[in-house]
Fold these 3 entries.
Entry 1:
Amino acid sequence: MAYKSPGKGYADVANHFRALIKSGELAPGDALPSVAEIRDQFDVAAKTVSRALGVLKGEGLVTSRGSLGTVVAKSPLVITGADRLDRMARNGLRYAPGETSSGHKVMRRSVHDADVCRALDLEPGDEAVIRIRVFRQDGRPTSVGVSVYPPHTVSEVPELADDARMTRQFDALYTERTGREVVKGQRTAHARQASQDELDALEIDAPPHTAVAVLVTTVVFHDDEHALGYWEDVYAPGAHVPISS
């Protein structure tokens, strides 16, 4: 694997390896190059390398492992659905090492959620296709992914309504069939109380009437005419989610 990067500062070196870990190209347990190798490849001083590795250790992404040197920490990050798209575009990896998904559901439902209706320009009660899946790391549920697609998106990508896992991402299929670019909007995050369905999916056994806070990220996809899809990720308490600067 090539580790060469044009960056010269410790932040550039740290960002390079952070990106490889986030994309799944460096898996938990994989060793990073030695300090001497990183010095040569980035043309930086040993102090710069040490500082970069210190940043990654502080973020919980890597750890020191004796004679093995610095290795990627186990299950360091839970990425968003939008980041998963970026990862697939970069290296074709749908899942990171140790990551799987379960509980796949596809349904047609009337949409009444005000935020979803506003994002997709739907009237309350309009029908949309909703896809749900639970992402797991080493068998443990880490997040629930929900995607909602209005009728005009489903008409171009009818596979979205099939009760089966998609073999290709909807944005690539949409662009291929319409010639229109799919643009990812601003990702936002907020905290709220988890629903019982979300607690069940995340296998959280909370006492009745107990409020459990979860982090939620959302993003809307568009072309030059329509909103095409609304994605929401709900993370288990304690999940470490990378937030783009």
Entry 2:
Amino acid sequence: MSTRTNRTRMLVAAAFAAATLTLTACGSGEGVKDEGAPVGSASTSTPTAATKPSGPAQKASGGTSTGAGQADPASSTSEGAAGGAAGSSGTTGSRGSSGSTGASGSTGTSGTSDSTGVSGSTGSKDSASASIRCSSASTRMAAAVVSRPLNHLLLTITNTGSKNCDLTGYPAVRFDGAQSVPPAFEDSKPQAVVTLAPGESGYASVLLSAADGSGSGGRTAKSLAVFFGGGASVARPSLPAQGVYVDDSIGVSYWQSTMADALAW
């Protein structure tokens, strides 16, 4: 009887001890950890600054709290700085790419269209058509005695060059070895300089002697020299074989563009 009583007491004591241990474990929270509580439940806990450890322990707890979804001040600051740097670099990259559109400013080179100014080269066309002074190198001259008016010699000069040439003034004629040239009829001076295109001719007349025979110092000339172009050129047209009679009444007209104008003097 006593043995059974003692066994009963021991069982009750053991049960009481087990109950005590169970309650103690529940109160310390270790039982929850042993039973494998869900990780998400850790995010419902609110850490306090008073219980947060410092120093190395802070890193360890910070790692745990971060894993539980908490924002660690130190780590969030560094991560924010890194994220900001990445964001700023991303912004810089996008800004740089958009800045490349500035290359369109190169269209300003269209101003080089002013290079169309070379059209002024048409001035060479004007220079090509510009007249030069007629000379013996680019002309041919002939002398012929005409029937009317009496005692007149007609000088014909033809432009044999490739450019226009100007006949200025009047021809200075010398028969044989005369020491002077006859004067010009001033009233025969044209209003404009006579210009000869290639192949065109100009004219001048020479009054050889007085028609009524009133002139003095008459003689027969066998050769003729004609100076023109300011005296820089000389032509020597042929005279008739019998020569021409000249006296002191001799005179010449200015160069004319037509034969009729020349023979009017």
Entry 3:
Amino acid sequence: MHLNPKRFFVTGTAGFIGFHLARRLLQDGHFVAGFDGMTDYYDVSLKQRRHALLHEFPRFTSCEAMLENEAALEEMLDAAKPDVMIHLAAQAGVRYSLENPRAYINANLVGTFNVLEQARERGVGHLLMASTSSVYGANTELPFAEHHRTAHPLTLYAATKEATEGMAHSYSHLWSIPTTVFRFFTVYGPWGRPDMALFKFTDAAIAGKPLDVFNYGRMQRDFTYVDDLVEAVVRLAGLPPRVEADTPACQSKSAPFRIVNIGNNQPVELIDLIEAVEEATGCDTVRNYLPMQAGDVPRTWADTSALAELTGFVPNTPVRKGVAAFVDWYRDHYGV
């Protein structure tokens, strides 16, 4: 039990990362009010199962509604009275933004605006928001650091997330809202999304189906295990930024606002991920090598020095260990 339980409001608690974060906060003895739209972007039953596990904790409450629904959001926050707001809900997926761009405008821009308005009206003690490594876009300077330019996003998804970073900074500056934005780097682990590479590779390997390998397997990603990411977010939640004379490079000089990379600081080639899946499943894969898809980048790599300086922690789970944990969950969950 946490000695000083706090009241957290978390959007996206039926999602992959939101579920893991909410469960960790509840295990630490905090109160968590969850808000999720249960969209059908992927299997809704997976989201419902995550929420069912959270509801086993008596300190968890939830509301099923879209963030664009201002009345539902306000009503939930009136009941929750949070000390900390953590905004994770978004329309995710790089490629899906090519198929359904309006979903990104509604969820990511309008939804985030509503969250910011509620944070302003309530004077919340700390607002934390999820962004993505995709905002680095066409940037070729590696590893990606928080002060690098992010002016050239390659997809609408990345553009909306970059826009929410700017919106959050303006609210922090105008209304003195302590705000931390974290840029996630390819998060994976148990309860992961079916649209992500690890899920697809594992499914294909076990079923004996061919798997699509883009950029002929030469892409590299900074795969970040979900438990490591949650540890970083929990630590940052207890460290609201302040405007100080000696401001870290990741922090604004004009607002209590910071941006922090959360990654493993170790790029892994896609072929190595596939080999880790083969090892964990005991199955060989049939690979269909393809060129790079529109909107993809060849490599991501997080500079995590700011995270280390702020929290004393950096993600460090080896990808083979993380993949093995995912495969164990996958086999248990789907009975294969």
